[in-house]
Amino acid sequence: MPQTTPPRYDVIAIGNAVVDVIASCEEELIEELQLNRGGMTLIDEARADELYEAMPPAREISGGSAANTLAGLATLGLECAFIGQVADDQLGKVFRHDMRATGIDFDTPARDGEPATGRVLIFVTPDGERTMNTFLGAGQYLPAAALDEDLIASGAILYLEGYLWDPEEPRRAMRRAIEVARAAGRKVAFTASESFVIERHGEDFRAMIAEGVIDILFVNESELATLTGESDFEAGLAAIAGKVPVLVATRSEKGAVAIAHGERAEVAAEPVEKVIDTTGAGDQFAAGFLSGYARGEPLAQCLKRGAICAAEVISHYGPRPEADLRALVDARL
Predict the structure, then answer these.
(1) pTM strictly above 0.85
(2) What domains are defined for the chain?
């Protein structure tokens, strides 16, 4: 029977524990290094070292899609906890410090030995587009045994990152986490993360949707097309909207749409003086949306929160908010 115990946390997330290394570059470097412009590519440690050597001066900022979303949620005043795997190394210590300093509980034990803590090498072109190259490192070895099931059951919403579905070990861990959350009567939110993840694991995702284990699904326009096989945005929405209680589809500068229990709402993108870096835009949109959803706000207001948070993060380098999001949202709602 589902538990009736009030949740201790608003959102508990499972995701990659990585450190982002971000550098501005010209278009020519993207071509020279044969990078997948605007996309995310999984790389091994040797390729990570090669790209790092080729990068212009860079900034290191703790990242990871779900972890970024929690950083936004914590800034917005929600109680959050994170589950993810770091190595017992310097980057792992940096990541743990950054999470806790943001007000997020993070107690997953560090992993001894190789590989190192994961990192994402991000090349940002003058138009603000980011090209990501991800070495998952220790993150891909998150075992089900590392899950604190009491912790998972204590969160109102379990938020899962599609990127982490690719490696086998954390995929098993997330399947178990879904079972625990649903047995506790909690909501499960899932972000598809990237079209290539859907191409590899779409059968899994579509099965979970059909089984009704996903309560809130976040996709962008291209991910929606990959998931449904529909190139037309409205056709894609129609193909999936009735299968998940809450569907949120973002469209970059074209705003976003949400459909929940038959109700549809839309929001325009918030104006931004200059797009500096789109890294984390989807992550912070999810943070804004969930901050409203967790409080029971109207669907349109949840979308508005998402748009405000996304606009803040693309106005500077890095995937996590620099402004006081709570004050920013309060001023613009």
Answers:
(1) yes
(2) 9-16+64-114+138-332 (3.40.1190.20)
